[in-house]
């Protein structure tokens, strides 16, 4: 028996993942070396506190709810991804697996296995960033913009609101790119992205679709406000850009389309805004036009 206990202790303390025995109230009773590495706290420090103190606040309610269900016998175990606040202050993602030990019907304590998944979560975040954001400008790309637009249309239909899309193309950008090179062109696109973002309200969204084409989503707006945003964009882009001893003037052609129709979809709304943008080109550029399609 003592040999078995000794083997258990060795397996517990030297396990490659975090292990802990926890009281029903959340106090750590026993912790292993791997858990001290995950949290940054020594064994003695951990044994004077509880898991609640180290849990990231937004994850605590879920953790406590699952734990309570364990104690009440509503489940035998649970698994969740959660965050701890490391002693250094950084956030550590873990995969937490918890089971309960009982004597008859009486709950005694919890056994937790804690695996550090921070690297995996960071990789997932990077992949999500690559899938939904433009690499050059860090703005949302077409995919994310269309998702947001679809959500805005659904919300507007429910709330009987108005959604506007502004479709923007930089006048003469290809000539600038061909004349001064792609490095300067890239700098210019990033500058435009920054200026457009500065024109947005808290609920608005700007995206880069491709090349020198940008779109703006105004999810809760009015016709007058959408026109005002277009005027503000034209004004902010009128300030010349100085780079590499070159001074460049930027002007946009902007098309605006509105959605207040239950049958309107993302594809048609973008098509109407794009069509209005070409009308702006034909009307001398550096202006905006409103689509007549509603």
> In percent, how helical is the residue content?
40-55%
Estimate the strand proportion.
Answer: 25-35%
| Overall geometry | elongated
Mean pLDDT: 93
Q: Tell me which CATH architecture of the largest domain applies here.
A: 2-Layer Sandwich
In CATH's first tier, which class of the largest domain applies?
A: Alpha Beta
Helix count, DSSP H or I runs of 4 or more residues? 11
The beta-strand count equals 12
Structure description:
Residues 78-129 form the PAC domain. Residues 21-74 form the PAS domain. InterPro entries: Biofilm_reg_signaling (IPR052155), GGDEF_dom (IPR000160), Nucleotide_cyclase (IPR029787), PAC (IPR001610), PAS (IPR000014), PAS-assoc_C (IPR000700), PAS-like_dom_sf (IPR035965), PAS_fold_3 (IPR013655). This is PAS domain S-box-containing protein/diguanylate cyclase (GGDEF)-like protein. The longest helix has 18 residues, at 142-159. With 294 residues, this protein is an alpha+beta fold. The strands form three sheets. It has a five-stranded antiparallel sheet with strand order 2-1-5-4-3, sandwiched between helices. Helix content is 45%, strand content 27%. It has eleven helices and twelve strands. The model has no long low-confidence stretch (mean pLDDT 93). The protein has helices at 2-13, 33-39, 43-46, 51-54, 57-71, 118-132, 142-159, 173-180, 182-198, 223-237, 266-282; strands at residues 18-22, 28-31, 77-85, 91-103, 106-116, 163-170, 205-210, 213-218, 241-243, 246-248, 252-259, 288-290. It has two domains: 2-122, PAS domain (Beta-Lactamase); 133-290, Alpha-Beta Plaits.
């Amino acid at each position: 028996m003592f040999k078995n206990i000794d083997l258990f202790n060795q397996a517990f303390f030297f396990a490659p993942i975090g292990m802990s025995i926890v009281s029903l109230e959340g106090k750590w009773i026993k912790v292993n070396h791997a858990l001290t590495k995950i949290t940054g706290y020594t064994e003695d420090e951990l044994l004077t506190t509880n898991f609640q103190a180290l849990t990231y606040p937004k994850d605590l309610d879920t953790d406590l709810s699952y734990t309570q269900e364990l104690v009440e016998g509503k489940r035998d175990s649970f698994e969740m991804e959660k965050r701890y606040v490391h002693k250094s202050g950084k956030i550590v993602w873990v995969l937490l697996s918890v089971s309960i030990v009982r004597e008859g019907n009486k709950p005694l304590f919890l056994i937790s296995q804690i695996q550090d998944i921070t690297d995996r979560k960071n990789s997932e975040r990077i992949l999500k960033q690559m899938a939904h954001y433009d690499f050059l400008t860090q703005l949302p790309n077409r995919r994310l913009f269309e998702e947001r637009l679809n959500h805005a249309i659904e919300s507007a239909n429910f709330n009987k609101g108005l959604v506007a899309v502004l479709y923007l193309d930089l006048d003469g950008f290809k000539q600038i790119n061909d004349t001064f090179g792609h490095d300067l062109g890239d700098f210019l696109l990033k500058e435009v992205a920054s200026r457009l973002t500065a024109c947005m309200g808290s609920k608005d969204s700007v995206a880069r679709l491709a090349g020198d084409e940008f779109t703006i989503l105004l999810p809760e707006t009015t016709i007058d406000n959408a026109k005002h945003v277009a005027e503000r964009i034209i004004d902010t882009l009128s300030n010349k850009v100085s780079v590499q001893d070159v001074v460049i003037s930027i002007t946009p052609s902007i098309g605006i389309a509105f959605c207040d129709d239950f049958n309107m979809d993302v594809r048609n709304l973008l098509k109407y805004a794009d069509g209005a943008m070409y009308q702006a080109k034909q009307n001398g550029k550096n202006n905006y036009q409103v689509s007549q399609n509603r």
